[in-house]
Amino acid sequence: MVDIQEEAADLHETLPDDIDDTVDDIADKIQDFVEHGVGIEDAKNSIRSNHGVSTGNSMDADPVDKGCGELDTDNEPVNMTAKVIQQWDPRSDSVHQVGLLGDETGTAKFIEFVGDDNNPIFEEDSVIEIEKGQTDEYEGNFSVTIQDSTTVTVLDGEDVEVSNDGGGESLTLETAALVDVRADTSGLIKRCPEEDCTRVLTNGRCGEHGEVDGEFDLRIKAIADDGNASHTVYFNEELTEELTGIDLEEAQEIASEELDQTAVIGEMIPMIQGRYYTLEVTKYDRSNIVNEFEEASPDTEAEADALLEQMEA
Amino acid sequence: MSANENSDYSGPQPSRRMFATEFNDVTYSFKESEEERAPNFSLMPTGEKANRAFFVGTLVEQPETVGDDGDVLRAKIIDPSGNPESDGGAATFWVYASGQYQPAAFAALNKMEAPEYVAIRGKPNTFENEDGDVYVSVRGESVTPVDKATRDQWVLDTAQQTLNRIEAFENLVGSDDADAHYINMAADQYGENVEKYRDAVRYALKDVRGDNNPMSGSSDEEEVEAEA
Question: Given this model, what pLDDT does residue B8 score?
Fold first, then answer.
């Protein structure tokens, strides 16, 4: 059994003299971490880190100044000044806030998990300065995580120009139905392997490079339509997996079993076509890239009742 | 909503939300440009133009093969916007899919087994018989079996949008307002009685609320709560 008081005392010795925390305070904090399933050593490292003491982690490297469109290294501490282009609705209870940042270099997703020391929800169009945010890479996309050790300052009265090349206008499509999925170019697809070309192949051919040995990928191209406007939207590999529960590996298995690449979209369409979603998208020209989505699931009986009441009023 | 909502003509046209009660009255169609390939629009009595519609209803019978070559499927799909007393609560969409021209829709309809909830996106199509009667049908494009939750969501969505159109119609009919263009066109073609579509909204919403269903889950919950 670990003696938390003893660990706390040892740790307290190594912390700067001018901190407010007593040994008991440190013990409480260690206890808190341990109760949350964090190991003793990690707990101590976290506490050291919060007091600005080096723990030998990569997070203690000096943060690098990066623009939204310049994020290129996983797990890197960064400083950024950017505009909060959009706030999205968190889909999970563990997310405190999530959305899109933008500056002259492009756009990047930001996320802050629920914790003891959360920042206030940043207003859309406000400019924030992030010190020591942590980059995260998933499937080639970089985002920045705001952690306990990250300092965020809202810069009142400042403005940041958001580039249209790196990013685009963001919008939310509320209760849009995926009225049509473009089967011929969705599901398990192949992309051109030539440098800087990501074209989707048709029958093994790239529109630019001719016959090539394509690389498998997963995506959905669909029409999201709310009755007043119709948008062509694209879900990337990660989002297609979230949408359908089928990942790239499984998709390739399906294709092999059926000896038919199109069998994959055949399985996916009944799962999503004709259904309602709320989509957060970024507009590039005529394409809308989906960043986040949520299946719509209203309490239809209650809403019908409310609407009927409204009608009688 | 504004007549200029979707001004990107090269993009897909929005799929309008309307109940079968309204859809079957969409007998007037027009083109906005002389160009051969310009889209065809149907005029909705509630004052909006429609190139496509999206609806979720119940397939009540096995689709029938029709047409000279037997290459066209016809499906009867109902929604709850009809008067429970006169129509049994059902209003009907007649959906057609040609094996040659709408193969995906044809294949999907062929696989379905009534009764089943189905989501359809398609184009309004009018047919005039020798007596000059005009019938409206759907040329099905995307056909997908779905669940009751999706159907109920569609009813809510369509109810809200229909009410919005009716409100705009009543406010703007006869005016010079920029948003009154299709409203005035509809008043000319069909008259100004939109109360019928308000009734349709009520019937459909009541169905989702569970009024028509003696086995509705909510009434069980109410009983349990009352006992608690």
Answer: 35
CA nearest to A243, candidates A268, A280, A216? A268
Three-class SS of residue B169?
A: helix
Nearest CA in chain B to A269: B144
**Tell me, what amino acid is at A132?**
K
Single-letter residue type at B92: T
* C-alpha–C-alpha distance, residues A263 and A253, integer Å: 10
Q: Report pLDDT digits (tens) over B35-79.
A: 777 888 999 999 999 999 999 999 999 999 998 888 999 999 999
* C-alpha distance from B132 to closest chain A C-alpha (Å): 31
Structure tokens at A286: 């005529």
Q: What is the DSSP letter of A201?
A: P
| Of A86, A153, A91, the residue nearest A125 (C-alpha) | A86
- Whether residue A135 contacts residue A75, with contact meaning beta carbons closer than 8 Å, is answered with yes
The DSSP string of B4-43 is TTT--TTSPPPEE---HHHHTT---EEESSSSTTSPEEEE
User: Nearest-CA neighbor of B77 among B122, B38, B115?
Assistant: B115
Query: Cα–Cα distance between A261 and A132 in angstroms, integer?
Result: 45
| Interface residues of chain B, partner chain A, Cβ below 8 Å | 1, 5-6, 8, 11-17, 54, 56, 104, 118-121, 141-142, 144-146, 149-150, 152-157, 159-161, 163, 198, 201-202, 205-206, 208-210, 218
Give the distance from residue B5's alpha carbon to the nearest chain A alpha carbon, in angstroms: 6
Distances (CA, A) of A54 to A46, A86, B38, B215: 10, 34, 68, 66
Closest by CA position to B163, among listed B132, B192, B200, B108: B200
The whole-angstrom separation of Cα A115 and Cα A145 is: 13
What CA–CA distance (Å, rounded) separates A311 from A305?
10
pLDDT tens digits for range B88-133: 778 999 999 999 999 999 999 999 999 999 999 999 999 888 888 8
Contact A271, B150 (CB under 8 A): no
